[in-house]
Amino acid sequence: MSVERVVSWLRECYREDRSRTGVHDYFSGKVLHRHLLAGREELATAWMPEVVVSPEYAAKASEHAALYRREQEVVYACLFLCGQHEGRAGCAPFLFYQGCFDPQHPGRFEIDISRWRINPNCLEILDADAESANELLAGGVLDDAVIGSLREWGARHGVDTEALWSWPDLVDAKSLKKAAKGLQLSLLPAAGIGILPRSVSSRGVIDELGGLVKAGESGWSAPLRFMLGGDVLPEHSGSDDFFAVPALLSRSQENILASARVNPVTLCHGPPGTGKSFTIAAIALNHVARGERVLVASHMDHAVDVVQEKIESMIGGEEVTVRAGRRGYLSSLKRFIEACLSGQLTADPVSEAGLARQFSKVKGTMRELLGDERDLEEEWCKALGRGKLMAKSDPNILDRIRRRWTEHVVYRRPLLMELSAHLNDLYVEREQDLGKYIRMQRKHLLHLALQQKEVRKDFKTLLKALRKYRGSEQEAEFRKMDLGSILDVLPVWLVNLSDLHRVLPMEKQLFDVAIIDEASQCDLASVLPVMQRAKRLVIAGDGRQLRHMSFLPRHRQESLAVEAGIKDAEKEQYNYRDVSLMDLASAMVDDSSRIGFLNEHFRSRPGIIDFSNQKFYRGGLQLMRERPWGDQSDALEVRFCEGTRDEATGVNQIEVDAVIDALKSLLVSSSSRTPVKHPSIGVLSPFRNQVEAIRHALGEQLEPNEVNALFHDHDLCLGTAHSFQGEERDVMLLSFAVDPGVGASTLRFVEREDVFNVSITRAKSKQVVFHSLPVTSLPRRGLLADYLNSASVKKVTAPQQAEPDAFTLEVLGELERRGIEVLPMRHVAGVGIDLVLVDGERVMGLDLIGFPGSSFEAVDRHKGKILRRAGFRLFPLGYAEWKSQKAHAISVICYELRHDQRYRMMP
């Protein structure tokens, strides 16, 4: 197989796909809140930082932009290509800038001069080469020189560009519409504001894919060669067991981290709410502590932002990360570099000796921790034998002597729960010491680097480049510096896939490891440049969640494959439309040591996640929020609305009103809470029109201050499942909208497994399902019927799992007499607990050991760590020490319960 041909084919598929996301006519319904500017153009010429528009227009447009901030974008359109093309009149903006309304100054509008793109429709109409047009507009500023070059370029493509001589004076709407009907294409000086569906910048990906084709397989990184079938993975070389991560990891996470250190490709399956972002952050920090470089990329800004937050929360600072690519993020980076060069961050440098002492402290804590874990396990074993002896019903003389001696020995020793409490303190100390060590290490390396003239020069060059408006000028500055020295000081870079080409050159194996998140939503073409930049690759995602969307027709994909000489087997394996990065990785990586499945679900209460767990993950998720105390029955609520779905609009108005009523109730119930306790809220429907109807009803049925409270205090998100990928909310309201007359095709749309799974797994604490469909009217076997049937079954608090033995009952009675609520034989996060103690909001568990019966065995170390990650404290209590030190044991139990030093849930 010629892998270069495969890359070339994927490149053309990507180019064709992205060319279908442009705007043919500014005056069409695709462009919302249009506003043509008059007079002289001042933004794209960089004459003024902002312009003033009508406050009334700005208020309406900015309100719309806020409501649709995830699905749509505000743009500033410049230069219009007008005329008929293939019998179709149009007025297509040639250039788009990213724009925004100033919330502090109503009526003011500004653009990001560095964030521009050419309308793909214009290039398609002219059959023009994107690269040549991009070169003309490299800086984004439309000064006289650029306009002159555009006149010449347009003329070469048969366009009348005479009107551009009047630039920056603008023509009006009447002139544009007249030119749109003309047979001759013309490029007119005009500018306007509008709101468009969001699109992904594609020019950088296309250029870099072309670079990969030219480099050939021999010039590719190891992960890229493997993923395109050109290489065989080497055998796993193993690694040490020390993970430099300030957190308690699960076995699966440890396996993933171990593989990421040595294998060219590692695959991480992360179902909803299982700590995937946390695991990615742990991988990054584990590499940073070893002096290595990490690139984290995703097509979703939200995904990389969450990873950055996890990294910073683990180490208590932002000394290691660069969130690159967007205007606000670059401003933060510039401030950091300025602080470095001014000496602000190295005023109190960390010495080599100080760093060594801290590392020695980390190692010492680790040794003590491992030693204490072994000691505690040995004490558990001894407690079993002692308990058997103390529980004998007919002891002989020798047994009585041994009992006396056992009581004497046990009385003089600390309780098992005291040893366990000390172990818990060591876990906390280890995390704090490791976080401090990583911060000190970064500060020390920064100080050493900035002592070198060449490195300071590189930092100054980077700062100079970031201050440039023109992309060509930025690239010229980048070429002057050694990027390696920058990456040694700032080792973790987080970036959106569409921004990667703007911030980092495509240098082979520039990073030690690259991590691609939300891989099920990544097409194969856009991720190849990421692979080229890394020695090793981690692919993270969930094949059971949303897939990437392609608008490329199948027949066109087939034509491109024929043109590129792609064989049938290659077309199937690297199918641009149908195969995501997650699909390809699952097919290519078959060594279990390189694959990890995150099975601890932290997000949702059991009633919310249980259906997804059973239906999509075969019951393989460990429910970390499984808690026997408190009412668990209200996590999932079903409301039958008896509404009807309008055949013309697809809107179920009864359900719309029910959702609005629920939002009103949530506002009332949370009005007495402090701001930090306001629950976040999401509203989801499978149908866009139902979402729009709910959005419209918000403005019609709620007061402006209530709408404002929902968006600002409750972080309200409205949308289809695609708006919620990677998102979560405390409370989710789901409107299925369908009624008994639902057609088979509509039902198939609702029951698409990836969309359905995302839809029902966003809620953390409460999910309310609105539907108008009697379950009896649905096919017997189907996702929606199964879900509604499951959701309609009233869940009750889990009963005790077994009959308590005499030891359990004795401890229970003593604690209840002291006013403590005791739940015997329950499960927490899937682990059996002998006694769960509840005192108001304070909760802990007792693991009873050594009495022959249900409480004989101890909870093993692995399960104990599961409980710790779930935020639940469990303390062991041996039967022998209960008999020897009952009063002291009760005192320690009461102390631990009422001091309530709860753990935080790890992800």
UniProtKB/TrEMBL annotation:
<dbReference type="Pfam" id="PF13087">
    <property type="entry name" value="AAA_12"/>
</dbReference>
<dbReference type="InterPro" id="IPR041679">
    <property type="entry name" value="DNA2/NAM7-like_C"/>
</dbReference>
<protein>
    <submittedName>
        <fullName>ATP-binding protein</fullName>
    </submittedName>
</protein>
<dbReference type="Pfam" id="PF13086">
    <property type="entry name" value="AAA_11"/>
</dbReference>
<dbReference type="InterPro" id="IPR047187">
    <property type="entry name" value="SF1_C_Upf1"/>
</dbReference>
<dbReference type="InterPro" id="IPR041677">
    <property type="entry name" value="DNA2/NAM7_AAA_11"/>
</dbReference>
<dbReference type="GO" id="GO:0004386">
    <property type="term" value="F:helicase activity"/>
</dbReference>
<dbReference type="GO" id="GO:0005524">
    <property type="term" value="F:ATP binding"/>
</dbReference>
<feature type="domain" description="DNA2/NAM7 helicase-like C-terminal">
    <location>
        <begin position="589"/>
        <end position="769"/>
    </location>
</feature>
<dbReference type="InterPro" id="IPR045055">
    <property type="entry name" value="DNA2/NAM7-like"/>
</dbReference>
<keyword id="KW-0547">Nucleotide-binding</keyword>
<dbReference type="InterPro" id="IPR027417">
    <property type="entry name" value="P-loop_NTPase"/>
</dbReference>
<feature type="domain" description="DNA2/NAM7 helicase helicase">
    <location>
        <begin position="251"/>
        <end position="547"/>
    </location>
</feature>
<keyword id="KW-0067">ATP-binding</keyword>
